[in-house]
UniProtKB/TrEMBL annotation:
Enzyme class: transferase
Protein name: Molybdopterin molybdenumtransferase
Function: Catalyzes the insertion of molybdate into adenylated molybdopterin with the concomitant release of AMP.
One Pfam family from the record: MoeA_C
Residues annotated as domain MoaB/Mog: 184-325
NCBIfam families for this protein: Glp_gephyrin (NF045515), molyb_syn (TIGR00177)
Native source species: Nostoc minutum NIES-26
Cleaved signal peptide residues: none
GO biological process, one term: Mo-molybdopterin cofactor biosynthetic process
Family: Belongs to the MoeA family.
GO cellular component, one term: cytosol
Pathway involvement of the protein, from the record: Cofactor biosynthesis; molybdopterin biosynthesis
PROSITE patterns in alphabetical order: MOCF_BIOSYNTHESIS_2
Amino acid sequence: MPSVSDTEAIILNLVQPLDNRQNIEIVDLLAADSRILATPVISPLDFPHWDNSAMDGYAVRYEDVQHSSNEQPAILEIVEDIPAGNQPKSTIQPGQAARIFTGAVMPAGTDTVIMQEKTRREENRVFILAAPTNSQEFVRHKASFYQAGTQLLPAGIRLNAQEIAVLAAAKCPQLNVYRRPRVAIFSSGNELVTLDRPLQPGQIVDSNQYALAVLVRESGGEPLLLGIVKDDPVALEKVMSHGIANADIVLSSGGVSVGDYDYVDQILESLGAKIHIRAVEMRPGKPLTVATFPTQNSPIYFGLPGNPAAALVTFWRFVQPTIKKLSGLAEGWQPVFVKVRSHDELRSDGKREAYIWGRLDIVDGVYQFYKAGGSHSSGNLINLAQTNALAVLPIDTTLISPQEEVQVLQVGFNN
Ligand SMILES: Nc1nc2c(c(=O)[nH]1)N[C@H]1C(S)=C(S)[C@@H](COP(=O)(O)OP(=O)(O)OC[C@H]3O[C@@H](n4cnc5c(N)ncnc54)[C@H](O)[C@@H]3O)O[C@H]1N2
Ligand code: MOO
Ligand SMILES: [Mg+2]
């Protein structure tokens, strides 16, 4: 049985990012948040567009004010008033200054701004009460933040508020982004029903479909929900074939262990799949099937274990990075672990890498891991609610004592 890290390496090697020549959507800027930029953006504009003032004050010639002081102020004649948005009209001559405001264009002839607080005004004269520390002080120079024609944003980044603002400033009303990876999801099991059905003895609601749909969306994918399938090879083959033909990733849950009704692996084989993983040295999540098909643009198939905690943990550990890598993200798709103190005692039998769900909370400014109360059976879904992290105990680690450090994988949103 492969280790978790070997499994991760095998899976991520199977995944290639979507080709950015064929998988582009054009979206409006305000609809582009959380999307992945598919082509680099180069702006024909410099930032700042012009030399402009960083302060409300006076635009001056440095040579006129370099020896100014409270006792011996330079006295300059104010020849122009330049609010932000106005084009300056005059060229400032020796002995002159322009009244200027933050963001306003520097007038010709000036190179330095004196902030208002360091001046005294008498009608159309300004007294400079302190010398600037250097010439160019409080001037934001044209192109000092960004030079026209160079790369403004690279392809492969996720667009958040900051990037959307940059793109607005660069006058990009529409953008090329990667299409979202399509992820087909279905659940297998005779015991499963939709939540609107009365529960007959032995039946449970198919909660995995809900969990996986939301997780796919959170990870940047587009879920394609294929419903519940009976533990019946014919029905399973039909749904699996449909998912394989219509998605970049197929996620099934259930039917991957060794039971008489666990058909997923055998149907994958009959469909010509190459099975790369059949089980992983982890708890929960040991029965995990990963397969690909010899056809071009073949999707990657994840047969997730049916137990709800096992389905979620294997999603977070393996499927989420897969969706992120496929979605065109150039980097940052690998899971990130942080080392924190555990508030609680954590135990494992040490035979498989253990993932223990709980919360990462900040106490006195320091992150600590709190194990979720209640049963840690992989069949228990209830105490997964309000968790946001998984503590990881490597193989052979049987105990983490309170206040000892532990590696933690953050999952979902941190609230
Ligand atoms: N003899 C063995 N039995 C089991 C082994 C083993 O190694 N030897 N592994 C156990 C482990 S670990 C897990 S995890 C499960 C995985 O089982 P399957 O993937 O085959 O899933 P099912 O048998 O279909 O269901 C297991 C469990 O999960 C519930 N389930 C299934 N689908 C859903 C769903 N969509 N929503 C909510 N709950 C679901 C199902 O009712 C079962 O209780 O196998 C162990 N057995
Ligand atoms: O993978 Mo199983 O999750 O230990 O019940
Ligand atoms: Mg089973």
